[in-house]
Design goal:
Two copies of one chain form a homodimer. By secondary structure, the first copy, chain A, is mainly α. Chain A has helices spanning 3-15, 18-31, 37-40, 51-69, 84-98, 126-151, 158-162, and strands spanning 113-115, 122-125, 168-169. Chain A has seven helices and three strands. A two-stranded antiparallel ribbon of chain A has the order 1-2. In chain A, strand 1 and strand 2 (122-125) form a beta hairpin. Chains A and B meet through helix 1, strand 2, helix 6, helix 7 and strand 3 of A and helix 1, strand 2, helix 6, helix 7 and strand 3 of B. Strand 2 of chain A pairs antiparallel with strand 3 (168-169) of chain B, so a sheet runs across the interface.
Chain lengths: 170, 170
């Protein structure tokens, strides 16, 4: 498996944990009798994106990471979610999209230059782009999502963040 | 470069950004006339590790990730830091250690089973361990470090988190 695809499957796996955190958030809101929508606009600093946007962006890094590195146009996922349930569905739509990719879609990814309007005249090799840009940005927004929920008392632990890992018998 | 070493160099690169965040935190404390040590014990939830511990753990994932995957005993880095300056030095010690590794140290890493007392009778292939355990855990603690600082008003932005990326001329 290419470095690119191996890393993309890893962030998709972590993304698949986020709907479970949101379910725990809904259960916590119910237990404490507060409107779960409060969590969607919660943030850790006034000039930081709230939970709703953090999940949308985490999802977009997974979607666009796959699309850009496979050199395919990404589907539009409008940022229209207004509930935790809709946000879970957004993540599901992203995961269904990236499940259509195969290792061979990334055959040329590692040596192709990925361009950005932010860096005119320059580009990042796919192999660098996935490790230095896609993966860190994804985990940044996934962890911030988790941190906002923890800060608001949602009972989550590191195991919820990491999820299942692939093990072999010794 | 192997998947393993490529991913380890990426997290070491992000770790090298953390001392710069701590410097900005010290400057902010000076500007606002508060004791910078307050930040070391700051946390986002009462049952979550404070900043000091987050940086130590982020550093340890980089150190132990390299050591375990290269099958070498990691050096002891005692958790004795009490100031932001000492914490920056701790990160520096870790970075100096991991700079001694070369791609060939990880030649057998991808197919060797990495064991843990938490999963008796089972182990993770190195290639899975680095992507599913080392990288997510590292970014979890690096992002939580960043989030604690942002929550306390330290002027940091996404660019401080990501740092420099490797670019090529088009």
């Amino acid at each position: 498996m290419s470095i690119t695809y191996a890393n993309l499957t890893a962030i998709a796996k972590t993304l698949s944990n986020i709907p479970k955190w949101l379910e725990k958030a809904e259960a916590y809101a119910k237990e404490k009798s507060f409107d779960p929508a409060v969590l969607l606009t919660s943030r850790l600093a006034p000039d930081q994106f709230p939970l709703l946007r953090q999940v949308q962006i985490a999802s977009d890094w997974v979607k666009n990471g796959h699309a850009r590195l496979a050199d395919k146009p990404p589907p539009a996922h409008p940022d229209s979610e207004q509930t935790l349930e809709e946000l879970r569905a957004r993540v599901g739509t992203c995961l269904a999209y990236v499940a259509t990719f195969r290792s061979e879609d990334f055959g040329a990814a590692e040596t192709r230059l990925i361009t950005s309007t932010r860096t005119p005249g320059k580009g990042a090799l796919g192999a660098d782009y996935v490790r230095e840009t896609v993966v860190p940005n994804f985990y940044f927004h996934a962890t911030t999502t988790y941190a906002i929920l923890r800060h608001n008392g949602v009972p989550l632990g590191k195991r919820d963040f990491i999820g299942e890992v692939t093990l072999q018998a010794l």
